[in-house]
Write a structure and sequence with these properties.
four-stranded mixed beta sheet; 11% strand
Length: 220
């Protein structure tokens, strides 16, 4: 059975896991990982593969993986990629999804977190890029600026974020506008260096060059 993104988005159990996972992250002081984040990641993962000429089905599998990628946080933040992959396997199997599709989605989810990630296939690569490039001030939920940690400050400083693809030049660019009164450009680069290196590897899997540009300055 070919599971569609609509099937996933309309599944009440999945919505519950996303909501409850984000509640745990709220308690721990993390940035937003709820429907706004997973919705954007799902959209961007699909867009990346569509733009690069992959099939509609591959693009939809990336979209599904993007929507499900953070459900493992309902178990624990640590190793949430692996626990999320196992959860996704059970959900998709119960829904009657094809084994081939399940394997592809589960592989992408299990390889998206920077501590253990690797762009093993195009779907995983698109998920990594979509997830790690979702940096914006609206993800910060701490309203007390005095108690901001470095991750709050870096995210809150990002006032504009765009992910662009130049098919002819074979480039994918994360273009950010940062309020440097909140966070220095180099602070962003330092904090998210591992994520940006992972994005570089993911882009290479799609035969693209990853570019990071902040306030007009090319850093990668």
């Amino acid at each position: 059975m070919k599971i569609t993104f609509k099937d996933i988005k309309n599944n009440e159990a999945i919505a519950t896991y996303i909501r409850k996972a984000d509640e745990s992250l709220i308690a721990m002081g993390y940035t937003e990982h709820s429907f706004a984040h997973v919705g954007k990641v799902a959209h961007d993962a699909r867009w990346i593969l569509e733009t690069m000429g992959y099939s509609d089905r591959e693009a939809e599998l990336a979209q599904i993986a993007g929507y499900l990628h953070d459900i493992g946080n309902v178990v624990n933040r640590i190793d949430h990629a692996q626990s999320g992959a196992v959860m996704a396997f059970r959900i998709l199997d119960k829904m009657g999804a094809d084994a081939e599709d399940i394997a592809t989605i589960v592989t992408a989810i299990g390889n998206h977190d920077e501590k253990t990630a690797f762009p093993v296939n195009p779907i995983a690569a698109a998920l990594i890029l979509a997830d790690k490039c979702d940096v914006r001030d609206t993800r910060v939920r701490n309203t007390d600026h005095i108690t901001f940690d470095i991750h709050d400050r870096v995210n809150y400083s990002v006032k504009q974020s765009k992910l662009l693809i130049n098919v002819e030049k074979k480039e994918i660019e994360l273009r950010l506008r940062i309020d440097t009164s909140i966070c220095a450009v180099m602070d962003y680069f330092e904090i998210f260096l591992n994520r940006m290196i992972l994005c570089k590897k993911a882009a290479e899997k799609l035969e693209l060059k990853f570019i990071l540009r902040i306030n007009g300055q090319k850093l990668m």
